[in-house]
Amino acid sequence: MTTTTPRTYRAPRFHAVFLVLCGIGTIPVTCMTAGQAADWPQFLGPQRNGISAETDLVKEWTDKSLAEVWRTTGGVGMSGLAIKDGKLVTLIQTGGQQRIVAHDALTGKRLWENPIAPAYQNPMGDGPRATPAIAGDHVVVFTGEGMLVTVDLGTGKTVWKHDVFQGTSGKPAEYGTACSPLIVGQHVVVVLGAPAETLAAYDVKTGKKQWGTGVDPAGYSSPALLDVAGQPQLVALTGNSLLGLQPESGAALWRYPFATEYRCNTATPLSVAGKVFISAGENHGSVLLELKRANDAFDVREAWQSQGTKSVMRNEWQTSILLDGYLYGFDNVGSAGQVTHLTCLNASTGQRQWQVPRFGKGNMIAADGKLFMSTMKGEVVIARASPEGYQELGRKLVIETTRQAPALANGLLYVRDDQDIVCLDVGKK
To answer: 195, 241 in Cβ contact below 8 A?
Structure first.
């Protein structure tokens, strides 16, 4: 790991910026009502950082921990779960179709389904990859071959459907279109990777294209709306770089080269006190970028970087979690290797705090000072989030092999695999 003038970590300075973000896009915690804070309306939750504001969750592990509330049949796919207004929505593949399905979040009852595209086949796994995004009465989904679709949350009826590659000479990335849609104000933003359109924005209500920008190829990461150098920016990790964009117009603000073998940039960028953290597997590693305004442009420098076979964090397809100045994540060793260490870093310096060697591949979210993890084995693991060391509360085998991260809403934890969707009680006992 190399460091260039590391600075003391300061608590995120989000308050003034959040007032702006509330007017144009996703809803941060400081702008939420209690009811909104309990939802999980998109990939990685309310702020697209894997964190829920919920409290009073399971304190100690007992025989009643993770009691199963309901279980229902789902289908094939890597799409995560979005929950809003008592409805759970995801993408599945069954009966030769990619389908949007909605369930009652409390009972599991199937409310509606909409077959929106033919089945998607890929050597790296069949079915849709992207997680739905819910805003107001609209649900936006992205299929494995690149069909962007908006449906009505209440009825499931299609509002509009658009093949994003039509007329672009572009095509899906090698392992499928994996970007989870990001709704920013009246726009839905996705990564295409087409020759002249790395990213594009569409009107949520009509599907009309608002802008397209960039010449980078697509990776498998989903964009985020972040506080960068004191202003809200769209930040997207493509197949070979990190881009900062103006949210309303898509105008390019800055670019940082970050090329990974097989273009396997998959984790979502994170804001760390106005800086930007990115990480990738294939032995690529991590970097924390500091950006400063330089007239009409931005000066980009590395606050710290740790790359190669000795890197402290190599997120293969998982996004790390930032809590109280520390990053918790899965460090994947080698080229898509099976060795994965659970790791905690000091976010401001990149120094490792602790590591659980060979923990195994998984995914995580956080709430109430705890990490809620799903492993590829199908276990749900709960641990306290502490830089002092790994403190596991317990684990339980719940489903079959999975890559999807859990979702959390109203004291209930949701997980899925290629067969079932399961709801677990994680409220305080």
So the answer is: no
